[in-house]
Specification:
266 residues, mainly alpha, two-stranded parallel ribbon, two-stranded antiparallel sheet, 8 helices
Amino acid sequence: METLILNIDPVAFHIGSFPVRWYALAYLAGFVVGWKYCLSLVSREEGTRPNAEDIDDFLVWAVVGVILGGRLGYVLFYNFDFYLNNPGEIYQVWKGGMSFHGGMIGVLFAMFAFEKRRKINILRLSDIICAAAPIGLFFGRIANFVNAELYGKVTTVPWGVVFPNGGDVPRHPSQLYEALLEGLVLFIILYFMTRSDKVKDGMVSGVFLIGYGVSRALVEFVREPDAQIGYIAGFVTMGQLLCLPMVIIGIMVVMFSKKGTLTRGE
């Protein structure tokens, strides 16, 4: 099997002199497809809140939460010293640098604020958003692959890929591993959960936290650690460290949901 040498232009097309990048299109696709999927979920439960109008209105809140949270999370978790010395670079998101964990925190704050304004069941809202989140993760990881970023360690597996900035040796396409696990597999699991009458409010959110945390932590073993951080304590990556509380919280959410002890909004 011939080794794949990645050579994809990160710019999809130009509008005049303005470059439109695949990364931006991936974010757009994730939001649009995820929004449509959320609408399909609420349409099956007429008369409940959140409803279609709530989902439409929350889309803007979610976009702001993802972008602001994702960028600030990257600044704080992954490259704080650089941005402390170069604060003007913080807003230049087109240069790359977004954190999933930061984006998740941003959306969480957005959900709490939205729930206070609309007086809706925040557990149902969280379950709907979490059920759709793997769609955005899938598109985002494909975009990481196109950008030849966040690639894996050197490997001898037949599907190894030579990345432009990764030397002339094949590496694990860790972005595609994450697209498969965090995106496709997790989406399928949550898809069937949303269609079960036995799944209580909050359980989809808990399983999402567990599924993403475990998937990301496993892929990190074959993913090249961030150059500016390397391994923490010599053996763990920042991504794995951030996933640990996700898994713990996810397990607690599932347990409390089963017992019916989670607080629910009206």
